[in-house]
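User:
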Amino acid sequence: MSIAHALSGEPIDVTPYDARLGEQRSAALFKSEQLEVIRLVLSAGKSMPMHKVSGEITIQCIEGELDVQVDGNSTRLLAGQLMFLLGSVPHSVTAIANASALVTLVLNQ
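Assistant: Predicted structure:
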């Protein structure tokens, strides 16, 4: 079941899934001309391979623990922490523990 994109002014629940985390999937929460926000869900050991996007991004860990690889450096991102990346920076994300995060992408750059 996919989540419908939110409309302008509509609240979006981004609280931790807790015990329901294993049942969830990644989903785009909204997309506009300049911005997209995705709820990324990764099971422990799963990853998004090295890639890059043209616009700036943020990764905000909501629950669990992520390993973010950037420029050959590994950084642990814990629940409650946020990371900013410039556009076109190669990066990968691996779940150390079951995790969900908000990923914000600036589009059209």
